[in-house]
Amino acid sequence: MSPTPSRGKRRRTDDSDTEGSGSALDGAGKADSVKPQPKRDIELGAPMDQLLHSENFFCRVCVNRQWHEHLPPPSPPPSPPPERQRVALPSHRPNAQPNTEARVPSTSPAPAATNQNSQSSAPTSFTWLSQNQFTTPLTRSTTISSPRASTPLSGVINMSGAGRGMVAGPRGPRSRFSTLSAEVDDAVSLLLRELEYLGDARQKIAQLEDVIVRLQQDVRINENALILAQRNAASSSQRNQEGLRVENERLKREMEDMGRLLGEEKSRSQFHKADADHWKSQAQSKQTELEELRGKLKNLLGG
């Protein structure tokens, strides 16, 4: 791990962001000339008009950045040309010489410069750990969040925060990912889009789960209806089979009765037939006797 760079090396200026050159001491001089001094707390013994001052209704950060007088822009300015987007790391920048001339401070009033600086930059909301040269994850800073609500990663990357392993830089007219390569920028944009679509995806998943639950309920209802229909068919078939069995037994009993009656009638017919044969033989014998008696009577009368 490389040692922590000095405050002069870690602080960047507008020239180092746009041109990638210039010494850290010059940038520090300009930043010190533009940055307003923090205001002290109002003591308890102050007069009433001082207590009712308009600055007392704003936080210290807003007052230091002149946001109570001039609101910051709603979004960061457009990205600079591609050849100016690269920002040298502290390890790649030339070391500041002790005999380097200090940059002449601007002659414009401090509030105007502060207003321009606050309008040309958005509040910092993220810091980028560059110990392994842009390979560590992006972490949320503890400073005030950006007013931009279009994307989660709003504002510019904090390049001036104090801490070990952080890349220092000013809040100038730069893009959010001006220090990143095109591949990393595309990857971060893709991740942001995926995170934005995550809520819709979860809602769609919940809707699909509701549809699946309703379909499962319909399937169970249809299965229960099918089981009930099968039971009704089985019970009706059983009732039909029972009725057919009873009818078959009744017909079988009737057939047995008819067979018994037919046997009785057959035996009776045989009896009557035998009786008719007997009487027929008797009639023939009587006819023969009658013929004999008639012949005898004719003989007696003729003689």
Concise account of the structure shown:
The chain is mainly alpha-helical and about 300 residues long.
Overview of the molecule:
There is one protein chain. It is built from seven helices and three strands; from the N terminus they run ααααααβββα. Strands 2-1-3 form a three-stranded mixed β-sheet, with no helix packed on it. The chain has 303 residues and is an all-alpha fold. It has helices at residues 7-10, 14-19, 24-34, 48-51, 60-64, 110-119, 182-302; strands at residues 126-128, 138-140, 157-158. Helix content is 53%, strand content 3%.
Evaluate the radius of gyration.
59 Å
Rounded mean pLDDT score? 65
How many distinct beta strands? 3
Percent range for β-strand residues:
under 5%
Straight-line distance between termini: 182 Å
Shape: rod-shaped
Low-confidence stretches: 1-32, 84-174
* Largest beta sheet: strand ordering: 2-1-3
Roughly what percent helix?
40-55%
Helix and strand run: HHHHHHEEEH
| Structural class category | mainly alpha
Total number of helices: 7
How is the biggest beta sheet arranged? Answer: 3 strands, mixed
Which terms summarize this structure?
303 residues; 3-stranded mixed beta sheet; mainly alpha; rod-shaped; disordered N terminus
